[in-house]
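DM from R.C. (forwarded with permission)

"hey, sorry to bug you on a friday — could you get me a structure for this? deadline for the figure draft is monday and I only need the backbone to look sensible"
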Amino acid sequence: MIWDELQSALDALQRDGLKRNRRTLESPCGPVAQVAGRTLISFCSNDYLGLANDPALVAAACAGARTWGVGSGASHLVSGHFAAHATLEEKLAAFTGLARALLFSTGYMANLGIVPALVGRGDAVFADRLNHASLIDAVQLARADSQRYPHGDLAALEKLLAASPARRKLILSDAVFSMDGDLAPLPGLLALAERFDAWLVIDDAHGFGVLGPQGRGSLAHFHLPHSRRLVYMGTLGKAAGAAGAFVAGDATVIEWLAQRARTYLFTTAGSPLIACALAASLDLITQGDARRQHLMQLIAQLRDGLAATRWRLLPSPTAIQPVIIGDNHEALRIAGALYERGLWVPAIRPPTVPKGTARLRVSLTAAHSEAQLALLVDALRELA
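My reply, with the result:
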């Protein structure tokens, strides 16, 4: 019976230490979480600047609801594009220094829309092997020839590009890799895109708001020159503290995406009250150097605190700090021991990460205090 097959597969996930368990928060997003009546220090969220429950964003959302209501009622190209959306797109374009921006409901939907709109059958996509699942799925939807290069390996990518007879080429990469926390070699990727007449699509979900001058993202971090072939995606549910995503780039490219990206065309526009909150968020991001400086201090505190232990940290300069465990069950055991101590750190296992590299994914935010992080460091040192 098909139901028995599903149960058998679920039992296998449990046996292999791969079953995921959902917890329900009873408090707003922040460094302290209420879960099942317990108070926990959370190192789980991607709210890197601590803006998800910021009073300025809450006030902007409330004002937006009073002005625009709650729902948009239609897709952007029908009747769901409000003045609040237009204002946010203009602010995002100015913030990134790119010609035009286009809002999407989520980063996943943005990636699924971008790649198939730019390439298809007879074309080729060259993707970093550690790209996010949304980028992997986007390549499958595009039906282009898929070629994956070893993580961050520009020499291997160059060879693949040189050997490809495809009519159109697209290089696809995260800017900050969500499970390792390291940065893609963006200057080298852009140089190869220019040399081989390729698109360069960058997913900056974890760099936007955190990296670069005034948090303007990974492109600004690397001081990349403007290029018409560069398509930049940033999410708005992480450092920006709300929800949604955007794509920015050359005006002609963005207009093409508005006309051909199916995940833009065929879905209801995001709530205008969220657009109002995000407009306020951009102001706080721009003025957020103190938040980013504190975040960098926390990163150094964690790395220094665990340096003399058996725990292996990946070389990440970002808010994502993976502690490699290896075995799935051991990762769950360590995460469980932390949880009993009131510290919530997720255990990340395959297929999210390669087999044999199960890890604790410590996500730091500017809302964490040094004292809260010290509790985590002390607990990990004790468990080591």
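R.C.: lifesaver. The first strand starts at residue 32 and ends at 35.
me: no worries. The chain has two domains: 18-49+289-383, 55-286.
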